[in-house]
Amino acid sequence: MQASNNPEKFVPRGAIAFFALLIVLGLIIWFGIYFLMLSRI
């Protein structure tokens, strides 16, 4: 594996994808609970 000669262009795609997936999963859970509570009224 070759060492990168310009470290400024490094983008941690795995971490960004992980946090994006975490946010989406949180929103799905939140909206699930939200609509569940709306249906009980």
TrEMBL record:
Q: Which UniProt keywords apply?
A: Membrane, Transmembrane, Transmembrane helix
TM helices/strands, residue ranges:
15-37
Question: Known Pfam families for this protein?
Answer: CoxIIa
Look up the domain of life of the source: Bacteria
**What's the protein here called?**
Cytochrome c oxidase subunit IIa family protein
